[in-house]
Each structure stands twice: as structure tokens, then as C-alpha cells.
Amino acid sequence: MSNTDHKNYDQNEPLTSNTAPLTDSTITIRAIKSFPYRNVKNIILRDYDLKNKTAHDLFQDSLKHIQTEGAFRPFRTVKFDRMKIYTHAHGSKTVNLVINFTHDDDWVLDISESCSKKLCDYGIENETEISLYVESEYEEYKANPVEKW
Fold first, then answer.
1. CB-based contact 77:39 (threshold 8 Å)
2. Cα–Cα distance between 40 and 29 in angstroms, integer?
3. To 5 degrees, how large is the angle CA 24–CA 28–CA 34?
4. Are residues 12 and 85 in contact, defined by beta-carbon separation less than 8 angstroms?
């Protein structure tokens, strides 16, 4: 390939998080079974409507996926009760491979049925990653983040 054929990165190209409409986004749900053993399995939700769906809808859709997909059989006994943004698209990533320890006050989603806040109101956009986990296990792991093999 010659230099004239090579296309350098264009600062004016849109980010992939901005190219998909909020009603047709792809997000990743990181179902966490075990923090110390880093047992995490991703659920990829394509064509997801961030403009009209609530955090409760996302929580229910994630649980339904776990209950119906064979690859998630080991996760079916986990009593998930919390969702939190792991990372935004094109944002900096955390050094912890399991969960983001920061932003406990503003990145946790209200998954209660009574909350009508839409996913886009949390700043969730195309290619955002969200952790699904058990809150008590997270608190225990955060107090003593020892990884086991």
C-alpha cells in the first residue's frame, strides 16, 4: 500500500458511540459471578433502545438472557441485585479487570421498578459496558480486593 492509499486517523470522524442512534445501540452487560476468581461473562445486547428503556428494563432483559441462554447456566443461581456502569465508550478503563471501584455514587443504576429514568439519562450510549453483580459480594471484595486463582 502506498502512502497515498494510506488513510491517517481523521480527527473529524465520528466516534462509534455517536454513530448509532440511541434507539439502536449495542451495549455489553458484564455478568459477574465471582469477584475474587474474576468469573465474568458478557451479554451483548444489540439494537437496544437506550432512549425508551429504563434500568429496570435492562436488568430484567439481562436476567432473562441468563435464564434462557445455555452458556449462562452456571450464572442462573446468582441472585443479581445491582447494575453499575463499568466504562463508557472511548473513556478510560479501570485497572481492575472485574469491576470499576470508582463512581459508586453516580454510575450505579436504579433498577427498581418505580424508577422511570431512561438509560440515556445515565449517560449510557452505544458501546457502554455495564456490570451486573451482587451488591454484598461487591462490598466484601471492595474492602479486600484479593484475587484468587
1. no
2. 10
3. 160
4. no
CATH of domain 16-143: 3.10.20.90
**Cell digits of residue 147:** 484475587
Query: Does the reported pTM lie above 0.90?
Result: no
pLDDT value of residue 6:
41
Q: Which three cell numbers stand for residue 46?
A: 444489540
Residue 23: predicted pLDDT: 81
Half-sphere exposure of 110 (CA within 13 A, CB side): 12
Measured distance CA(38)–CA(33) in Å, rounded: 8
**Three-state secondary-structure class, residue 53:** coil
Q: Which grid cell is 22?
A: 440511541
